[in-house]
Amino acid sequence: MKKSIMWEHIYEEADRLKELLASRQVADLLNAYDSRKLTRIIFVSSGSSLNITTIAKRFYEELAHIEVNTYTPFDFAGNATILTQYDREMTLIAAISQTGTSSGTIDAIHHAKKLGFNVLTLTETRNTPVEQLGDYYLNFLSGSEPCNAKTKGVCNSLTLLMLLAIEIGKVKGVLGDERYQAYIDEIAASIEDIPATIEAAKQWLENHQDWGKVQHFYVLGNGTNYGTAEEATLKMMETMCIPATVCELGEFSHGVHRTIGPNSNIITIVTEEYGHEIMKKTNGFLAETVGRLLVIDATSEPFTDDNVIHVAHRPLTASCLNLNVALQVLATALPEYNGIDPNQPMHEELTRLVGTRI
């Protein structure tokens, strides 16, 4: 079978991210928009764009002292009271749509502007309704990605959100020069890690092609990378077209654990953030309980069991960039082992029926 176009986008990620890191668009935005009084960002997005806001949340709260709220477009536009309690000068609405054509996001922007809020829009595609409706604009700089399941667009938009948080933190004086540079340097190092991450994931998969036969899987994550677990679940559902369950680590033992057994297939994401010891204990239990366990490990002292894919330990960003890359490789390769195009059309009539995009 011909390899999916998704591979081309995955292999472009490092170069596209280097271009993003070198860009001045975030600095230019903050020259035009005074972020010094900013105390709240409300993200409005769907799918992968929603998942990256969950990952990025802690960067805004810790590095820029900005409270973050995340909403789907339906939840945002359908709630008449969401914005009434917030000061307009201290609140920014950030609407994200990779294609720039999401009808729900467009409705949400109209809702925010009607109430007098500044709106920052972020897209991959220029000259789209989402871009044109915003008061301010940032581009993913990922290039065109005509796929259902996005890869480079996810990594670029995630990195863009991190860079925006870091730059606002510097402007507000929360981040000193040394700490600011440490984050920039770690993002640059993470970009350099990407080729090795791709190859590590591909090598592991060559010896574990049986994962392509699973009919359901779980993904467990916590901290910064709970959002990565959400994105992994979505990405693999999009490409494998099977049901899946995502669960936050601390919640797994509050009922979800009762559903697992010898036929269960579980992926866990391991970092050194809060909860690391619980994750170690959970992995030990799962190794004795479930049929398949894959551990994506981003710690400083990784273990080398056969069920582990290791990515570089980057503690400031919790290795979130390369954890997503490793999981994108899984989502692309596993359907192909079964002769299935991971980007195949599936129930496109529903998106047309409900008007997902304009």
From TrEMBL:
Residues 26-174 form the SIS domain. The keyword Repeat applies. Keywords: Repeat. It holds the Pfam family SIS. It comes from the Bacteria. PANTHER family: GLUCOSAMINE--FRUCTOSE-6-PHOSPHATE AMINOTRANSFERASE, ISOMERIZING, GLUCOSAMINE-FRUCTOSE-6-PHOSPHATE AMINOTRANSFERASE. This is SIS domain-containing protein. It comes from Oceanobacillus caeni. The lineage of its organism: Bacteria, Bacillati, Bacillota, Bacilli, Bacillales.
